[in-house]
């Protein structure tokens, strides 16, 4: 069957896309529940063509619970999803450590891919995947769903086109999620280093994304490489706290970025952006799920004389459909149907850009993933590179 021909044109005369879902885990559940929602104005009809997992009974339960009525094929292997000729695009929801191999396998079978964040464990793995995708001429897209939200597009328009807060100079962003590592089973993806456990790749990536989106007007196609200084702390060998200072040399803009699994107490708001004429607070349950932002004028007065009152702001609300996965799903479908190989919202260069910044932070923070990071561990870190450039200190 050709891509994009809806099998039931009488009911839904719109383009359609057939998804092969890899894993029955939590994110696959969230993603599938959203994309099968009945939406009047959906630009694409999303079909769950098949579901692949390591266990057939989990696949059955998944299909019954999260896409009843979709009648997908069920497979007890991921390979069967890659080899299903009726799949237009594969959604990969395994833990980060498997993303590289899963994507290489899907690419070898000639499949288009939407793969969960973090795209891979490090930038070298990301390059390997993207080179394979290029050679095979398939679509690959990192599922950084945040970037697809209408809220983000509106916020960046106000920031960089309309300059509603003047010239941006600073952003704070936080992602806090309380996960008691010691009480988790050793097989949990939050505890098992071989699955990619650690806050930066899991949730710090959102805080970093907020800083990039609000400090770098050139993102995603012409991103500037910021200076990134990071510290990380560990519990039972797992990175549980990351704090990063970002500095953009061309503008002097700075970001303070944090992620932790030691507290549920997210910064409120989870993101604040300051400019020369005002500031913006972004709110929502977490940095992955922004629901509104408020634009405030600059707070005037002498801070030394006492606490200063903020003046009333203008609030922009963005009620989401489902959990908010439809935006990346619709855009992915439209890309694939149009024959594009990259997403304009999260192009390959931006995935590499983010992975390279995270590599640099992990190098400084002494967080390495065995079996993935040997080259990174042996490389010269960013702080040493600066010291070497400066020469001997007298
Ligand atoms: N965009 C977002 O908001 C979110 C994204 N994520 C991302 O999604 C990915 C998966 O996270 P999440 O769904 O929470 O993880 P889960 O642990 O809930 O699911 C992962 C699934 O991967 C499969 N799997 C294959 N091998 C293993 C293994 N050795 N150990 C554990 N699972 C294995 C399993 O599915 P099966 O048995 O069916 O093969 C498992 O259910 C991560 O990369 C994460 O960063 C996660 C949460 C939210
Ligand atoms: O992407 C994510 O967002 C929500 C978090 O709960 C989860 O750990 C993370 O993977």
TrEMBL record:
Pfam families named among the record's database cross-references: GFO_IDH_MocA, GFO_IDH_MocA_C3
Keyword Oxidoreductase: yes
EC number: 1.1.1.179
SUPFAM superfamilies: Glyceraldehyde-3-phosphate dehydrogenase-like, C-terminal domain (SSF55347), NAD(P)-binding Rossmann-fold domains (SSF51735)
Domain of life assignment: Eukaryota
Domain Gfo/Idh/MocA-like oxidoreductase N-terminal, chain residue ranges per copy: 17-141
Residue ranges occupied by any GFO/IDH/MocA-like oxidoreductase domain in the UniProt entry: 159-280
Transmembrane segments: none
Known catalytic reactions: D-xylose + NADP(+) = D-xylono-1,5-lactone + NADPH + H(+)
Keywords in alphabetical order: Oxidoreductase
Family the entry assigns: Belongs to the Gfo/Idh/MocA family.
UniProt-listed PANTHER family: OXIDOREDUCTASES, TRANS-1,2-DIHYDROBENZENE-1,2-DIOL DEHYDROGENASE
Protein name per its UniProtKB record: D-xylose 1-dehydrogenase (NADP(+), D-xylono-1,5-lactone-forming)
Organism: Lithohypha guttulata
Lineage: Eukaryota, Fungi, Dikarya, Ascomycota, Pezizomycotina
């Amino acid at each position: 069957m050709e891509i994009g021909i809806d099998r039931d044109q009488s009911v839904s005369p719109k383009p359609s896309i057939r998804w092969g879902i890899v894993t029955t885990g939590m994110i696959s559940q969230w993603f599938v529940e959203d994309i099968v929602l009945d939406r009047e104005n959906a630009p694409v009809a999303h079909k769950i063509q098949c579901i692949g997992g390591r266990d057939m009974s989990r696949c059955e339960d998944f299909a019954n619970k999260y896409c009843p009525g979709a009648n997908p094929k069920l497979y007890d292997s991921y390979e069967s999803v890659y080899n299903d000729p009726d799949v237009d695009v594969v959604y990969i929801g395994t833990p980060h450590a498997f993303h590289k191999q899963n994507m290489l396998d899907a690419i070898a079978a000639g499949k288009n891919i939407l793969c969960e964040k973090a795209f891979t464990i490090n930038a070298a793995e990301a390059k390997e995947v993207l080179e394979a995708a290029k050679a095979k001429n398939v679509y690959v897209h990192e599922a950084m769903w945040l970037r697809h939200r209408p809220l983000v597009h509106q916020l960046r328009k106000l920031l960089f086109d309309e300059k509603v807060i003047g010239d941006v100079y600073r952003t704070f962003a936080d992602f806090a999620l309380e996960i008691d590592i010691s009480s988790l089973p050793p097989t949990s993806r939050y505890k098992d280093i071989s699955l990619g456990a650690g806050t930066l790749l899991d949730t710090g990536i959102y805080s970093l994304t907020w800083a990039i989106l609000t400090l770098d007007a050139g993102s995603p196609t012409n991103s500037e490489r910021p200076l990134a200084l990071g510290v990380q702390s560990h519990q039972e060998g797992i990175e549980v706290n990351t704090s990063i200072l970002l500095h953009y040399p061309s503008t002097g803009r700075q970001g303070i970025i944090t992620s932790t699994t030691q507290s549920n107490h997210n910064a409120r708001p989870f993101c604040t952006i300051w400019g020369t004429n005002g500031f913006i607070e972004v709110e929502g349950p977490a940095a992955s799920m922004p629901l509104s932002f408020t634009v405030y004028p600059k707070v005037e007065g002498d801070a030394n004389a006492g606490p200063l009152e903020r003046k009333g702001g203008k609030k922009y609300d963005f009620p989401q459909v489902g959990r908010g996965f439809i935006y990346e799903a619709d855009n992915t479908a439209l890309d694939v149907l149009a024959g594009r190989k990259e997403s304009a919202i999260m192009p390959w260069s931006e995935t590499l850009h983010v992975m390279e910044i995270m590599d640099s932070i992990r190098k400084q923070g002494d967080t390495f993933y065995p079996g993935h990071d040997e080259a990174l561990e042996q490389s010269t870190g960013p702080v040493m590179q600066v010291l070497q450039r400066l020469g001997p200190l007298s």
